[in-house]
Write a structure and sequence with these properties.
about 300 residues, alpha+beta, Rossmann fold, Tumour Suppressor Smad4, 2 domains, 10-stranded mixed beta sheet, 6-stranded antiparallel beta sheet, globular
Length: about 300
């Protein structure tokens, strides 16, 4: 049995905006010229970069004191193999937690906020300076966790994609998606901008904007004050929420089945009617997707795995 010092800690990082610019323009001078030519403040990019790497330095010092650790960039997550005894630490925005936790199967994740001035940190309860104590508690099993329900889309050919925030089913570009949607005994052929399926964590993000906007439009059309208050779901809620974006009713497409809940007993079924450019992607990462073209059928429900966020 592994002792606490034997367990490996995996630190997941992401490149800063400045590092992304350097990859594109190769030199600091060229990156500065590009940003300032657009009228933006290059000093802000530098400050963000310095703040992130200061937090990274403190984090790595803690990991060095611990013993076994490994650092990976988030780009390597889809192909990285985690050990069953690993503890995972993320240093980045909330999105990095979502990008990481869907590749874990119950492993504890510690979210560190590298820049509390910039990031709200809904999924980032700690800073780098907190890591020594939090890591000790986690390794000792004395830290509490918050379980996170995930969504899962399974295609008829058994390809799978998971989501911590939300799944998007629709067109790759700004065109209309055509598909057949079914929930329970209700079924409909639709034309829309796509379907969003949200978890409890994601219910405060994209789904919130869709629902809030819908109520705002309805209130305006009825010449009423919009007094709607949006109640997000709990992170561990055993259900998902779906909404159809911009459904278009016509002779061949309906707009009745546009919102609802997905539970363990009632999965959402969507069959693609798109000859090309149909996709399913998760958590806003369009590069990590499943093709969803004519003939493909997706079953969307609650994932069998849960995220485990240290609090």
């Amino acid at each position: 049995m592994n002792t606490p010092s034997d367990r490996k800690v995996v630190l997941v990082t992401r490149r800063t905006r400045l590092e992304e610019l350097l990859l594109r323009f190769h030199t600091l001078a060229q990156a500065r010229f590009y940003i300032e030519h657009l009228g933006a403040d290059f000093a802000d990019y530098q400050k963000e970069h310095e703040t992130y790497h200061a937090a990274r330095k403190v984090t790595v010092q803690t990991l060095e004191a611990h013993g076994r650790y490994q650092i990976i960039d988030r780009a390597f997550l889809p192909n990285f193999i985690f050990s069953a005894s690993d503890v995972v630490v993320t240093l980045g925005q909330d999105g990095l937690v979502a990008n990481t936790i869907k590749y874990l199967d119950g492993l504890p994740l510690i979210g560190l906020n590298p820049d509390t001035y910039r990031y709200d940190g809904i999924l980032l309860p700690f800073e780098a300076r907190d890591l020594p104590q939090v890591l000790r508690d986690t390794l000792a099993g004395s830290r509490q966790y918050k379980l996170v329900t995930m969504a899962k889309a399974t295609l008829s050919d058994q390809q799978i994609i998971y989501a911590v925030n939300d799944l998007f089913i629709g067109p790759r570009s700004h065109t209309s998606a055509r598909y057949q949607i079914q929930l329970g005994t209700r079924s409909e052929i639709q034309s829309s901008s796509g379907v969003i399926v949200s978890t409890g964590v994601g219910s405060t993000g994209w789904m919130k904007s869709v629902i809030t906007g819908s109520f705002g439009v309805a209130a305006s059309l009825q010449h009423k004050e919009n007094q709607f208050t949006y109640p997000p779901m709990a992170w561990d809620a055993k259900k998902l929420c779906f909404a159809v974006r911009e459904p278009f009713p016509s002779k061949s497409s309906g707009a009745r089945l546009v919102f609802g809940e997905v539970t363990a007993r009632s999965a959402l079924h969507i069959s693609s009617l798109m000859p090309e450019n149909g996709v399913i992607f998760s958590d806003g990462i369009e590069a990590d997707y499943l093709e969803f073209n004519s003939g493909a059928h997706a079953t969307i429900g609650i994932a069998e795995r849960e995220g485990c966020l240290v609090i």
